[in-house]
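Notebook, bench 3.
Goal today: get a predicted structure for DUF4340 domain-containing protein from Nitrosomonas ureae so we can plan the truncation constructs. The sequence was checked against the plasmid map this morning, with no discrepancies at the termini. Length recorded as 285 residues. Pasting the sequence as submitted so the record is complete.
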Amino acid sequence: MTHHSRLNLIMLVTIGGLAIFLYLRPQPAAIQQYSISTTTADAIQSLRILNKHQEIVLKQSNNQWHLIEPVQVRADEEKIGKILEILTASSYQRLALENLERFGLDQPYLQLYVDNEYFGFGGFSPTTHQQYLATNDFAYLISPRYALALPVAAIDLINPGLLVSDEIPVRFEMERWTAEFQNDGWRMTKHYSDDGFGDEILTKWIQLWQTARAEALKLEDELDSDWIEAGVIRISLQSGKVIGFKILQNKYSLVLLRMAEGIGYQFPTKLGQRLINPRAIVLNQ
């Protein structure tokens, strides 16, 4: 047998032995993953959030989420969906719920009740940078993103839209004009003769009201004397409800204060002017 033949035989035997070893060696056990909850988001009717600043209560009614405490107003459905993602979370570590101070769970800085199911958010693991969570008699390690979905203040959960999908306007009324939906379109009644816009601009203006989202939200008691009142818009809805918005302005912004709820929707001046005056749409074209 030549030298090259011996080398080839040795390589063949080595490869064969390695293949047999890999085939026969014990397979590692699959890493177990623990579900945090068995509840589905569709079944949830209430949320309660407690932090060091305040208690926030939300309830679902007619498939819409509303803040109940500390203010009563429509909630942002997208943000509620982010909160409810905790129900689908899982963890590779499940620990007995004891020695709570070790995990920062003896006094959780953030607590969430999903209906009657409790979630307490504690400290962080120094090795994995995951967060300890207490629920259903166990402590879990999960991603910090679930706690970040919870608001610091109730205003963070308010829907930034002036009107939601089921608030269908049929009439807008201001000092200078009234717009009303009649038969197949919107019609304008002008109290003064200098409003140079037609039905096409009016339709764009209605659409703007239905799609505009505030850049910031303010509670009524945050709107001090720097804000000057510039009128009121009253909107009649298809449901028969009437909504009133007070117009407040300063040098940089415009706020539409939804008077019944005491929530101010803040817009940059240019966009704000388009919301309170269809003629501004003509000027900005």
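The chain has a mean pLDDT of 85. Residues 25 and 102 are 39 Å apart (CA to CA).
Flagging this for group meeting.
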